[in-house]
């Protein structure tokens, strides 16, 4: 998985467990696309301190995922949802659109949102 996407998902699930400083630096780097130097200037700290904080935050987030597997389960569920939608569409093509299949399709699509 793309690193930025992976880090963003980890942050979405576990970000509240970081310190305020770690959250700020993580958001400035990954969400606002600032460089380490720009963050250092904005935060009034050294570039190395920014890098250390960012790496520490990434390690913490990865550690939570290793223990809890919430992102892994989330992604697996999204794949199962997609497969369910594909199967429902196949059934609609085979059997024609019935009320039950329409309802099932609506529920499956709502799960995808």
Protein model, in words:
The structure is a single chain. With 113 residues, the protein is mainly α. It contains six helices and no strands. The chain has helices at 3-14, 20-31, 36-43, 47-68, 70-95, 99-112. Helix 3 crosses helix 4. The model has no long low-confidence stretch (mean pLDDT 93).
Mean pLDDT: 93
Structural class: mainly alpha
Beta-strand residue percentage: under 5%
Oligomer: single chain
Overall number of strands: 0
- Count of helical segments? 6
What spatial form do the alpha-carbon principal axes imply? elongated
- What is the chain-wise order of helices and strands? HHHHHH
* Global Rg: 20 Å
Task: List the topology elements.
Layout: H1 3-14, H2 20-31, H3 36-43, H4 47-68, H5 70-95, H6 99-112
Helix pairs in contact: 1-4, 2-4, 3-4, 5-6
What can be said about this structure in brief?
With 113 residues, the chain is mainly α.
Keywords:
single chain, 113 residues, mainly alpha, elongated
């Amino acid at each position: 998985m793309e690193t930025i996407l992976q880090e963003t998902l980890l942050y979405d699930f576990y970000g509240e467990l970081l310190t305020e400083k770690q959250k700020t630096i993580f958001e400035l780097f990954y969400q606002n696309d600032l460089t380490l130097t720009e963050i250092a200037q904005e935060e009034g700290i050294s570039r190395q301190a920014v890098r250390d904080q960012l790496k520490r935050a990434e390690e913490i987030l990865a550690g939570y995922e290793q223990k809890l597997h919430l992102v892994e389960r989330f992604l697996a569920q999204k794949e199962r949802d997609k497969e369910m939608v594909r199967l429902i569409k196949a059934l609609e093509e085979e059997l024609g659109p019935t009320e039950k299949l329409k309802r099932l399709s609506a529920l499956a699509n709502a799960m995808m949102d």
